[in-house]
Fold this sequence. Notes:
The protein is an alpha/beta fold. Helices cover 31% and strands 25% of the residues. Strands 1, 2, 3, 4, 5, 6 and 16 form a seven-stranded mixed β-sheet that branches. A five-stranded antiparallel β-sheet has the order 17-18-21-20-19, sandwiched between helices. A hairpin with a 5-residue loop joins strand 20 and strand 21 (400-406). It starts with a strand and ends with a helix.
Amino acid sequence: MQSFDLIVIGAGSGLNVASAVAEKGLKVAIVEKGPMGGTCLNRGCIPSKIIIHSADVAEIIKKGRDFGINAKISSINFKKITSRASSIVDKDAREIEEAIIEDKNTTLFKAEAKFTAERTLKVGKGIIKGDKIVIAAGTRPLIPQIEGLKDTNYITSDEALRLREQPKILTILGGGYIAAELAHFFGALGSKINIIQKGKFLVPNEDEEISKKFTEIFKKKYKILTEFNVTKVLQKGKRFVAVAKSKNKKKKLISDQLLVAVGRIPNTDLLDLSKTNVETDGKGFIKTNEYLETSAKNIWALGDIVGKFLFKHSANLEAGYVYNNAILNERIKVDYRAMPHAIFSSPQIAGVGLREQDLREGKIDYAVGKYMFIKSGMGIALQDNGGFVKVFADRKTEKILGCHILGTDASTLIHEVIVAMKAGLTADAIKNAVHVHPALSEVVQRAVNNIEY
Length: 453
């Protein structure tokens, strides 16, 4: 049996902890069956944004006539688009692995990790033990129990990012952020898109007004079935048939590719946690306290498998706290204030803080300010007719409670609000700051100016 000062399960943001501990001269083990870099690098945010940029370029070309430019797309080299993304992330993953192998204080185990006892793991044919363990094993796509689905060659986001052939018609099960981003990618490149969503609106976890407007925009571009449940799926040769039902309607959607994007589940069921005292919640996510300690002594957890926020940036934040708490023994509570997110669809969505439905449910006395992109100089230049910024502030303290943006560069515009919220500033910090005219950031300032206390 090999013993280590620290064992990290998962090679995503857990690597941040592993590398910092190894630099201190401690003995570290990393257990990861797949490529280094975790979901974000290999199957998530990095490859998806690389391919989505191609979709953004295609959409700009298609809109050229609106700006006096007569241009058209003569062909799409789909294989080149996805291969470019795959080659970039695969190279990065290899380089990370090479660096780990070269590190004298780190041992990499390319195998699944299964607990055999408290802080003891079976990795391949061997057994390793750690004084301390960090579980950062992530999540995987959720596959729903739908009649016939398991007998088809459906794909998830994992495979969608590496497809070599573009589907002519793509049916997507699910209407969350993964569905929104991939619908934009395939749709902008010319695939006909069907989306089947059980809820009333797409991206239902967003502010209600954002969800409603985004659904309205997407329905103009793609075939969207909201408040429908998929009851049966079958495959006939290369054709997929998805049967969907609402309260009083039944639809059959035929496509040459089927993408399942209904959510993600934690990988806790693969770890044999029953051999430890690590507790999970009803959905399988690991329970942690404010210091990211699990219910088992000297075992911490971070990232998607914890289920607080399923973002790379939140996992990186948590990794810093785990290092401080597990290795430096500082016991600092995780500060999740102003945790932002973005959806890189078209239009983009970004948000931070409370949504309007949260404020109502919490009976918080709030004021709201809103401003449309098209009312600004840059919004007119871009012809962004549907975009808007919506910001909430506490009526008494005037501190920002949340901000939600739909439209061009939303993922960038949100950062002005993030900084103000994290610093605990009032809305006046944005209101009184001089903004470049006519930059798009003026829309954020004008939304703040419109707050009526």
